[in-house]
Amino acid sequence: MFPQPHAALTPNTFAFEALPLVAPTGFREYDARWLFPKDLNLMGVQALGLGLGTLVHELGVRPDIVTGHDFRAYSAAIKLALIAGMQAAGLRVHDIGLCLSPMAYFGQFALDCPCVAMVTASHNDNGWTGVKMGAERPMTFGPAEMGRLKEIVLSGAFQYRDGGAYRFVPGFATTYLDDLLSRARPLTRRLKVVAACGNGTAGAFAPGLLERLGCEVVPLDVEADATFPRYNPNPEDMAMLHAIADTVKATGADVGLGFDGDGDRCGVVDEQGHEIFADKVGVMLARDLSLQHPNARFVVDVKSTGLFASDPELMARGVETDYWKTGHSYIKRRVNELNALAGFEKSGHFFFNAPVGRGYDDGLLTAIAVIEMLDRNPGKSLSQLYAALPTTFGSPTMSPHCADEEKYGVVERVTARFREMHERGEALGGAAITGLVTVNGVRVSTQDGTWGLVRASSNKPELVVVVESPVSRARLEEMFRAVDGVLRENPQVGAYNQTI
């Protein structure tokens, strides 16, 4: 029998090579992330594959699974170890090779595979690895499935089965890209587009797709380099957005698009070089899509702007918006449950449901949606479409360090503190608290519409902080100082990755 995984092993020892290492903290709310090889070794990846196969059979799902890997120096090795474990547990593996996460999700439909296991650390820094998993297309695992997978793997409760198989699917990227183009409408004007890929996986696919769409493409950091020498491929990272902005201004491009490490997110910069945060892009797309699809319904995460509920155009069209838990698995599932037309996350995960898409997050499809929006407004630039939105002042996503073992407890204490302030009638940042939303962390709103959010990151040892004000930049900064002041009552909270 395969050995039970260990929570810690010392590298460069016989034990490290002879036993599986799987740190328990790697099992997140809706996917798995570890530092490799510090918290996970290759035998640990085999254990994960065995556990996933055991869970698939336990769920009673047909054991066909599509798998692929992102562009990192170690991702192919991780995938092969995962495949060994999945085969031993009786899964029939369909390997599409180097790919984007949405390409693997598409494979569930195109290859008729109920299950998916995508080897990727998404936007995490170099050194991280992980797996995004699902057994009910187009959804990915949520807390219940991840909790059960954790139990199976850490306890070594693996069930070996015959019937495991492997096949490599050649040329699958072409099938995926052809499908995206078949869903796009012909463009009436030629747009110049900066395609930024952060030297990650999207560089192999995004520029070619945009060229086939009819755009003039300005490539930016599309060459393969697993060290990510310029910046992490993360369209929420201001370093990446600033690089896109500089290139847009230097080349006179109509729009800049930035793709994350596994291509399921897309960041947007307008023709003036201004970064448009993804939630505002979502409002613009909601305006555009609700004209094409009357009675549209949308889902957004709690980090997103309040404009989804207050924008006059959306309100006039009777658009309904549901604010829900942050996380690609949560929003994806909620879009499916409500049969919403689309779901938008502030992180840049956009989920387009039928007839636009198949319900999963795809950065390339998001890019097509932005380009089509511009094409449908030939007399307007992206900055003009953005300027037509009501003005609000929003922060980027800011993440102070907080250990995985501590972060949920910190959020509970912060929530209790805000609730206590609300009950006592205490002001926050000089304004009265009018309400708390606690569906995912705590979103505290004040009398003038300014709000702040604190939640635990689902995939890194961090908290997540976002603030927005419809009043002024000064009010935004005041709210940030107030929220941060409450956070600093907890010594477990460390430095931010970026602030306003």
Automatic annotation (TrEMBL):
<keyword id="KW-0460">Magnesium</keyword>
<feature type="domain" description="Alpha-D-phosphohexomutase alpha/beta/alpha">
    <location>
        <begin position="26"/>
        <end position="157"/>
    </location>
</feature>
<dbReference type="Pfam" id="PF02880">
    <property type="entry name" value="PGM_PMM_III"/>
</dbReference>
<dbReference type="GO" id="GO:0016868">
    <property type="term" value="F:intramolecular phosphotransferase activity"/>
</dbReference>
<protein>
    <submittedName>
        <fullName>Phosphomannomutase/phosphoglucomutase</fullName>
    </submittedName>
</protein>
<dbReference type="InterPro" id="IPR005846">
    <property type="entry name" value="A-D-PHexomutase_a/b/a-III"/>
</dbReference>
<dbReference type="InterPro" id="IPR016055">
    <property type="entry name" value="A-D-PHexomutase_a/b/a-I/II/III"/>
</dbReference>
<dbReference type="Pfam" id="PF02879">
    <property type="entry name" value="PGM_PMM_II"/>
</dbReference>
<keyword id="KW-0479">Metal-binding</keyword>
<comment type="similarity">
    <text>Belongs to the phosphohexose mutase family.</text>
</comment>
<feature type="domain" description="Alpha-D-phosphohexomutase alpha/beta/alpha">
    <location>
        <begin position="176"/>
        <end position="273"/>
    </location>
</feature>
<dbReference type="Pfam" id="PF00408">
    <property type="entry name" value="PGM_PMM_IV"/>
</dbReference>
<dbReference type="InterPro" id="IPR005843">
    <property type="entry name" value="A-D-PHexomutase_C"/>
</dbReference>
<dbReference type="InterPro" id="IPR005844">
    <property type="entry name" value="A-D-PHexomutase_a/b/a-I"/>
</dbReference>
<dbReference type="InterPro" id="IPR036900">
    <property type="entry name" value="A-D-PHexomutase_C_sf"/>
</dbReference>
<dbReference type="GO" id="GO:0005975">
    <property type="term" value="P:carbohydrate metabolic process"/>
</dbReference>
<dbReference type="Pfam" id="PF02878">
    <property type="entry name" value="PGM_PMM_I"/>
</dbReference>
<dbReference type="InterPro" id="IPR005841">
    <property type="entry name" value="Alpha-D-phosphohexomutase_SF"/>
</dbReference>
<dbReference type="InterPro" id="IPR005845">
    <property type="entry name" value="A-D-PHexomutase_a/b/a-II"/>
</dbReference>
<keyword id="KW-0413">Isomerase</keyword>
<feature type="domain" description="Alpha-D-phosphohexomutase C-terminal">
    <location>
        <begin position="431"/>
        <end position="483"/>
    </location>
</feature>
<dbReference type="GO" id="GO:0046872">
    <property type="term" value="F:metal ion binding"/>
</dbReference>
<keyword id="KW-0597">Phosphoprotein</keyword>
<feature type="domain" description="Alpha-D-phosphohexomutase alpha/beta/alpha">
    <location>
        <begin position="279"/>
        <end position="392"/>
    </location>
</feature>
